[in-house]
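User: I'm preparing a small set of examples for a lab meeting where we compare how different chains pack in three dimensions. I only have the primary sequence for this one, and I'd like the structure in token form so I can line it up with the others. Please keep the answer compact; I'll paste it straight into my notes.
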Amino acid sequence: MSTPSEKYATFRSDQEHPAVKDFRGLYDFALDEFQLRACAALEDGHQVLVAAPTGSGKTLVGEFAVHLALERGQKCFYTTPIKALSNQKYGDLVSRYGADKVGLLTGDNSVNSDAPIVVMTTEVLRNMLYAGSQTLLGLSYVVMDEVHYLADRARGAVWEEVLIHLADSVSVVSLSATVSNAEEFGDWLETVRGNTVVVLEEKRPVPLFQHVMVGKRLHDLFAGEAPTARVGAPAKASKSGNPAKEVKADLRDLVNPQLVRIARDDNRIFRDDSRKPRRRRDLPKGRPARSHFTPYRSDVVEELDAGALLPAIFFIFSRKGCEDAVVQCLRSGLRLTKPSERDEIKRVVAERTADLPDEDLGVLGYHDFAEALSRGIAAHHAGMLAAFKEVVEELFARGLIKVVFATETLALGINMPARTVVLEKLSKWNGEAHVDITPGEYTQLTGRAGRRGIDVEGHAVVLWQPGFDPREVAGLASTRTYPLRSSFSPSYNMAVNLVRQVGRMRARDMLELSFAQFQSDQAVVGLARQVQRNTEALEGYKESIECHLGDFLEYAALRRRIGDREASGSKRRKLDRRVEAQESIEKLKTGDIIRIPAGRSAGWALVLDPGMRSEREGPRPTVLTLDRQVRKLSMVDFPTPVEAIGTLRIPRKFNPRNPQQRRELAQVLRTRTDLLGEDGPPSRSRGKDAVSHADDPELQEMRAELRAHPCHGCSDREDHARWAERYFRLDRENRDVQRKIEQRTNTIARQFDRVCQVLDALHYLDGDKTTEAGDRLARIYTELDLVAAECLRQGVFDDLTVPELAACLAALVYESRSKDDPTSPRLPRGDVQEAIERMGSIWRDLSALERDMRVDFLRSMDLNFCWPAFRWASGASLAEVLYESDLAAGDFVRWVKQLIDLTEQIADAAGDTALRKTARSVVDQIRRGVISYASMVE
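Assistant: Understood. Below is the structure token output for the 938-residue chain.
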């Protein structure tokens, strides 16, 4: 029961904030104190930043902005980072306020766009700002949900663009996950947007208990109460940047001692440093490569079910792993649903997928998908069809699905809370290497455990793996905050849009307001203090260096120049060897037998493809090794020149993906090389000696000058020299710090200047105006925007047919998940190949110009989607395209939708030309079947 003072405080608050009072009455539960503070600040006319844990209810503050806008007859935009989250929020707002008051804009869908409340993706709002859309008239509030996305390397700049370019009259509600530098982010928002109130909430609404599953038994991670289970416990911020190690010592006594003993026993067999088992030959006989402490996925689900810990989200950082887990559970006979639940699941699945083409159901795996759902089991990952994912999300939210095996994409905003979250491993593949997950990622993933208003407590479970260290896991579980870092940088499209709107100087000033520049300027303060301390120390060193015979600093500088001269000679010789090695690689031909000097593939190999010369990396030949591996090599593998010692005919129909053909060709190679011995013929680089220092006249002259210097005869010479070395090291460090200060000052503006230099050189800009070509570029929003604009200007696409244009544009949007596929992509014959060669030439010319201007924006084109796009635009069935491309259905749909986006932009930029008609025909021909259905549901 409330005390009299609390009742009076509520009465005063209701009088001061009547809108908050009315809004509070819409809910059948009491609002949290942080929600009330944020709503009150918004009603008072302030802008608001709310940083709170996942599941704490921060979106309620965004909904209050919607309430205010409707109450005052104003307009509010609610932005989200992904289309699925926009759809979800649109449904929520329609349920509360009615379809006539809420609209949706996601690029695919435009529903009631003139409504007072419009939900949209952040990119849509950015594009509206650049286009000067009339829809912005009367806008009073913008909610930026998941604003911490501005740290995303690929898309983060969009959030900063919106925050910088929104009119001052618009109040912004920024909703963020818990970050350790929320105050810094709030200070920047105040600089850019005006008066901003920062509301921090570090308390989880539902306590979270941490566990480790060893075998079939669930152990508590902590000996006592878990830090995340303490209601109101503050998040522990990392000071050193390595939180897991930082808290390891603090948690040594808090970790469950039984887990420490298990780890000690398990690590007698498995390495402690990699979380991976040893090679099989290192293991004792009879011991498996898998630890007997590591539970099976189906066993985990059974134990959670027995312990009343379902529903659960089971995170596996692999799409295939998620699908395999569903199959494993089905084979084990798991059935987690009641008959009534199964009937309802079947009804929902049939209703939600009724519009899918019947001929596509088989290739989409519909029947297996529906069977798993009926048992309460599902997968959820980016490779799935959007319709399937939405069915999983709806059924899980209703409690009909009991366990979802998901990749980390599920943690990116979709509202799917669970009682328990399971992490199979604490490392993931980031596209380049296996890396440990960060404290921020651990917080984001486990934050979904514990459903507010349903569960008394949530549970996070980590599965035991070989090399498991419970103290490091405790560090992850205890460090619940992470810093927000800007990823902002100006792009070509951004530059032409800004210059077209406000001119070059005003655009430059606006970019100086970015969070990236703000963070750089903040860092300069500490660097300036470091320069001051270093300068004082240098004066002290000078006193210790003084010599009665002469200027010892001059003498010491001469000694350093001699050392530098000797070192540079060695570097020149090393460079000569690299040039010689590169020239030797460029002479290789298909079928050459070579011996790779170094690297993982060292030894005999057969050249399958000499590879095209890369300006950045040099030649990269593809070879077949004696152990039947197909490798794409780089200059790292050739520290010395290589030469062919013979040739071997490669069968015309040789397929490097076929294991049998690789085995047969490798056997022929082995037969040929056995006669040459282990080392082969001597390398032509052996025996070459470097130019002796004695042959360098300038070096000899400097040594003579050193011996003639007065300080050369000083009895304390070496003591002085040691102080001089310290002086030079600190002086170099000081100059480096001063250079950093110069680099961090006006960083974004200087980068913008270089982008404009590229655009000036290509005549996209003319002073403070854009040219006709610049106006076309302003309509193209893609990572390879400048390549697309140049192709338009040079007429590369003009005479292409509909399938051919689809194939060429696919090269500008697609990006393979595997960066190092040794096989050449399949391309349509005829005009497509000629057009792609012209596109490649344009890309190389632009890359060379970028190097001259010291910018680097244009990634390489990826041709692996050209054939699927060509076939789909030619009318091929979904089954045919997926079979020929090895793409997952969800991936194929996603890339076709991105292709549609770019094609529509090309049609818009092309003007009243035949190309516009062709581009629109491309959209009509590829937006069919499952793609057409996906556009309706997403």
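A couple of notes for your slides: DSSP finds 36 helices and 24 strands in the chain. Confidence is low (pLDDT under 50) at residues 232-249, 271-289, 683-692.

User: Perfect, thanks.
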